[in-house]
Write a structure and sequence with these properties.
Number of domains: 1
Structural class: alpha/beta
Strand order of the largest sheet: 2-1-3-4-5
Radius of gyration: 13 Å
Order of helices and strands: EHEHEHEEH
Number of strands: 5
CATH architecture: 3-Layer(aba) Sandwich
Shape: globular
Distance between the termini: 23 Å
Strand content: 15-25%
Largest sheet: 5 strands, parallel
Low-confidence stretches: 122-126
Helix content: 40-55%
């Protein structure tokens, strides 16, 4: 996993250090940005992206606009949404939602599990 990267996109400062600690504990390299525009640019240049973890406080519609933009560039990359509350009607463009209210080690395990599960569903069957 060390040669793969998680792209972490967050528009908030609260909780960022604990979320980054959880992501770093997954064994992936973590590249973070607080800009959707920069995240889109990074997807063009990062070739070993294992997944995108999106921690966006924006309204659901704006959040899913970011997801659609990221999906348009790299449809093969799993997108995991971090959320502090239940989201109803999660669009199919989001592979998983992980609750950020859990302890750090559970958050790490949940992100790893969601990325691996999403990758398995995206692999072509030979």
């Amino acid at each position: 996993m060390a040669d793969e990267t998680i792209l972490y996109v967050s528009d908030q400062t609260a909780n960022n250090s604990s979320v980054l600690a959880a992501l770093n504990a997954t064994g992936y390299e973590v590249v973070s940005t607080n800009s959707a525009t920069q995240a889109i640019a990074l997807l063009y240049v990062l070739h070993t992206v294992a997944g995108v973890v999106l921690n966006h406080r924006a309204r659901a519609r704006a959040k899913f606009d970011v997801v659609r933009s990221l999906r348009a560039i790299r449809s093969d990359v799993p997108i995991v949404l971090l959320c502090g509350e239940q989201i109803k009607g999660l669009p199919s463009s989001v592979d998983a939602c992980v609750d950020t209210r859990q302890p750090l080690e559970k958050l790490t395990a949940a992100v790893q599990r969601r990325l691996l599960t999403a990758k398995c569903f995206q692999m072509p069957i030979a």
